[in-house]
Write a structure and sequence with these properties.
The protein has 175 residues and is α/β, with parallel strands linked by helices. It has helices spanning 35-49, 52-69, 79-88, 104-113, 127-138, 152-161, and strands at 2-5, 18-21, 28-29, 73-74, 92-97, 121-123, 144-149, 168-174. Bound molecules: magnesium ion.
C-alpha cells in the first residue's frame, strides 16, 4: 500500500526497520525547481533542438548549474525530529537517490547545508533493483522496510520488486 503524506509526522515508526529516504523533493528541494520546471525546460529545448536526448541533457546541465550555486531548503522542518525518533527506535537509515553518483560530493554538501548527515547514500535510477540488492547484501536481519519518496513511479517499482518477498514494506508518497 502507498500512503500519501505531507509531513514525516504522519509516518508510523516501526522499531528496527530499514528506513529509505529519497533525497530530492523528499528531504530537500530547490526553490522553484520541480517537475513543472523540468517539463518546461524540456519543452523549450525540444523546440530549439527537436532532439529528445539533447533537450534532456541541456535541461540537466541547467539543473546542475542551479544545484551547484544554490542552497537547498528542507521539504519538511520536522525531519530532524523524525530522524532522532527513528534512531531512538533503532532504525537503520539509508538514502536512495536517482541522482548520478558523480555528484556524490555535491549531494553530501547539499545535505550538510541543512544539517543532514548520512553515512549510507546509494545512487541508482532503478530503485527497486538497487534496494533489493542493498537489503540482500546488508540487511538480511530486518523484517520491515519504510520507504519515503515523492515519485509514485519509484514507490510502485519498490512495491512490485518486493511483492514476493518476506519483508513488510510500508511506502509513503510525500508531496
Ligand atoms: Mg525525489
Amino acid at each position: 500500500m502507498i500512503t500519501p503524506i505531507n509531513s514525516f509526522d504522519q509516518i508510523e515508526i516501526i522499531p528496527e526497520s530499514l528506513v529509505v529516504f529519497d533525497i530530492d523533493d523528499t528531504l530537500i528541494r530547490f526553490d522553484g525547481i520541480d517537475l513543472k520546471w523540468w517539463k518546461n525546460k524540456i519543452k523549450k529545448y525540444m523546440v530549439m533542438t527537436r532532439d529528445e536526448q539533447l533537450a534532456e541533457s541541456m535541461a540537466n546541465s541547467d539543473l546542475i548549474k542551479i544545484m551547484n550555486t544554490c542552497d537547498p531548503e528542507l521539504v519538511d522542518n520536522q525531519v530532524h525530529n523524525f530522524i532522532t525518533r527513528l534512531q531512538e527506535s533503532n532504525c537503520h537509515i539509508i538514502l536512495l537517490t536517482a541522482r548520478d553518483e558523480n555528484i556524490r560530493e555535491l549531494t553530501i554538501r547539499h545535505l550538510q547545508s541543512v544539517n543532514l548527515n548520512f553515512e549510507h547514500i546509494y545512487f541508482n535510477q532503478n530503485k527497486g533493483d538497487e534496494l533489493k540488492k542493498i537489503v540482500s547484501e546488508q540487511y538480511q536481519n530486518i523484517s520491515n522496510i519504510i520507504m519515503i519518496d515523492d515519485m509514485m513511479a519509484n514507490l510502485e517499482d519498490i512495491k512490485q520488486k518486493f511483492s514476493d518477498s518476506n519483508y513488510t514494506v510500508k511506502l509513503y508518497n510525500i508531496r
